Structures are given as structure tokens and as C-alpha cells.
Amino acid sequence: MTEHAAAISILDGLATELAEIRRAKEFAQWNGYAAAQARTALAKVEPFSAFATTRIFSGDGASALVDLRFGEWAIRQLVRKMEPVEIIAAFEEEVARNSARYEEVSPVIGISVEEKFEISPGIRLVPPASSILDPTSYPYRTQWGPMPERTGFLVQEYTVTPAYCAEADPDAGSEAKAATHPDRAKRDEVKERLRRVCLLLSPGGVELPVSVILADDRSLFQIEGNSSSRPYAARPQCAQPIDTGELMALYEALGKVADRDVIERAVDRLGRSRLSTDPVDRALDLGMAAEIMLMHDAGGGNAEITYKISSRAAWLLEPDSDRRITIFGLMRDLYTARSKAVHTGKFPDKNAVDLADADQLVCRIVRTIVARGGFPDWKRLALGDMQEG
């Protein structure tokens, strides 16, 4: 690469200075000015000069015209023990590839994760790293705000093609040229499905209120830091463990179940109930979740609704008659409490219904229907057809 002798000389100089550094404090003091000087120098020589100012596409229609930070990038590669010739080869390969890989990272507040596992290709849950030097040190790469200890992170990979275009290009500002795969809508769908699955597997609230886009620090033609957030009622105060095997099975089943939109509304009500401190609101939301799941039959009127949803829950969940009686009673008590909360604005006697037990009963109903792939024929079920249960 004799044609890149000037660039190699600049990188050699950086490598020599880096080799003389012995302590982290010295590196911190040196890194800032060395990166700035290297950026200016590299921007004037081949193969970097043609890309000194470049439009970078970060996906989902976003782009920015930036002065590429050659210095910071080159120092990161030198820290990885790459030789100057290898750094230039990596740059040229990235130019030729012109495709960038990003990660959308979302803390799953309310769920603890102890080890990394893959939900599907490009989608994984990871535990919080204990060291800033860990390559998956997501807690250290941005300011997340307070979250419970051992909170796990949902990481979704996506690609943007092309990653950049030269500003001399007449279509440089056309974001339509950059394709994002998977796009934001699909990534948002993953977040919502995971939140609902975790609600069905955990006794507590679960929220994914914020996401941050992180770039691969081995790449130059990327920008990071874009964040998105959604409003949420309250932040879960503790992280609950979950069984990863059950999560995988339920995540897949929820993606295939019939009438998924109906089930999702019920789970959202379940989630709202867990973030409320008012028993009236909890009873309302739990009762609505139960009604959504157990009155999904397009008709029948409202007569004897308490009896109907109680008997449906009992026949759906239990073949044993004694256990059906227990479930019938708990569902009847929940719906009675819900009705009184609607009509009086007050929660009945505290012994009228155990909301924690009712919560788990609603969870069990949702999981049973999801596992069977859809809603049963309620009429046949209520007449004792156990094949429907």
C-alpha cells in the first residue's frame, strides 16, 4: 500500500505515542488532542480525504451530514492491536461494503437477566455487564436513568444500506435510498411482544420505556445516540427473574395465536393493573382483562355475565370438578369487585377478593388460550366438551 504512505505514517505516529502510555489517566489525557490532530491529518490524505464530509444514514429515514472522526476511529483500532496497514484495509473494505450494522438497545425494566440468550436471529436478551471494558457494556454506553439491579437489555440488530453517500452526489439528501432491515415498526412489534410475554411470566410490572441506537465502534460510517421513548404510567421498582425456556415458547406461541390483538389488549390491562397502587384501579383493570378473554364470542348479551365468565374460566382451566369450583369462586369474586368499583368508585371489603391470586388467574387464562393457539368454542366447552379445554 505504498500509495497510502502518508496515511500509514500518521497511523504509525499514533501507534508509537499509544505504546508509551502506561496508565488509564494518561490515555484519557492523550486521547482527546491526539484524536483531533489525527482527524485533521487523515482528512487530507488518501484514502480518507474523499470522505472527510459524508452523509451517514442511520436508518428509518434518518441521516446526517458529518465530518468523519477518523482520529477517534483509528485510535480504537490501534487499541485493538491492529496494524496501520490493517486499519487502512478495514477502511477500504467498509467503503466497498457500504452497509452498516446498528443495535437498538432497550432496558427491560422489571425483568432480571443472568445470562445472554437469543430469542431469534438478531434478537437477544443480555444481562448488564459488570465492566466498562466488556463489549456488551450497555449500562455504560449511555445515560439510562435509574433502573432496578440486574435489569436485562433487549438488543435488536438491524442493517442500513447504503451506510453513506458522498455529499457530491446530487441525491445525497434522499433518505429513500437507505433501506433499513428490520425497520422500526418491526422492532417496535418485537418490544411489545416481549413486554407482554414477560408480563405473563412475571408477577410484576414490565416496561420498555426507552431505546437507544448504538453503532458498531469498529465501523466509521455510522452515527449513534438517537433515542426514542414512550410514555408509561410508572416504572417497575424491582427486576423479577424469568424462565428463559418458558419465555421462548410463549414468545413463539404469541406470534402465531389467532385473535392476537384481543389477547394483547387483555395483557395490556394486566400490565396496567400491576403498576397501580389503588385497589380500585387494579380491580377494574383485572376485571376488564378477564372479560376481554372470557367474553370473546361476538354476542350473547350481558345477562348473567358474572356467571358466564366464571364458568368459562373454570371449564377452560380445570378438568377436576372441585378445582373448577375454586376457580369459579375466585373469578366470580374478581368480577363482583370489578362491578362494584365501576358503579361506586370504591373497592369492596379487602377480604372480598385477593387481587394477587386474581392476577395469576388472569395470567393462567391468557397463557392457556395462547398455548392452544386461539379461543375455544365456549358453548361446547361450557357443555363439558373437554377437547375444547
Q: What proportion strand?
A: 15-25%
Determine the structural class based on helices, strands and strand pairing.
alpha+beta
How many helices does DSSP assign? 12
Largest sheet geometry? 8 strands, mixed
Distance between the termini: 72 Å
Secondary structure tally: strands: 11
User: How many structural units, i.e. domains?
Assistant: 3
Helix percentage range: 40-55%
Which stretches of 5+ consecutive residues score pLDDT under 50? none
Give, in order, the helices and strands. Answer: HHEEHHEEEEEEHEEEHHHHHHH
Rg (C-alpha, Å)? 28 Å
Overall pLDDT level: 87
Shape: elongated
Write the layout of secondary structure elements.
Layout: H1 5-19, H2 24-42, E1 53-59, E2 62-67, H3 70-79, H4 84-97, E3 100-112, E4 117-120, E5 123-126, E6 151-161, E7 164-166, E8 179-181, H5 184-201, E9 210-215, E10 227-229, E11 240-241, H6 244-256, H7 260-274, H8 279-294, H9 305-317, H10 321-344, H11 355-372, H12 378-382
Parallel strand pairs: 3-11
Antiparallel strand pairs: 1-2, 1-7, 3-6, 3-9, 4-5, 5-6, 6-8, 9-10
Helix pairs in contact: 1-2, 1-3, 2-3, 5-6, 5-7, 7-8, 7-11, 8-10, 8-11, 9-10, 10-11
Can you describe this structure?
This protein is of the alpha+beta class and 389 residues long. It has three domains: 2-97, no CATH class; 100-168 and 177-229; 257-388. Helix content is 46%, strand content 16%. It is built from twelve helices and eleven strands. The chain has helices at 5-19, 24-42, 70-79, 84-97, 184-201, 244-256, 260-274, 279-294, 305-317, 321-344, 355-372, 378-382; strands spanning 53-59, 62-67, 100-112, 117-120, 123-126, 151-161, 164-166, 179-181, 210-215, 227-229, 240-241. Strands 3, 4, 5, 6, 8, 9, 10 and 11 form an eight-stranded mixed β-sheet that branches. Strands 2-1-7 form a three-stranded antiparallel β-sheet, with no helix packed on it. A hairpin with a 2-residue loop joins strand 1 (53-59) and strand 2 (62-67). Helix 5 (184-201) crosses helix 7, helix 7 (260-274) packs antiparallel against helix 8 (279-294) and helix 7 packs antiparallel against helix 11. The longest helix is centred in the last third of the chain and has 24 residues, at 321-344. The radius of gyration is 28 Å and the shape is elongated. The N and C termini lie far apart (72 Å). The model has no long low-confidence stretch (mean pLDDT 87).
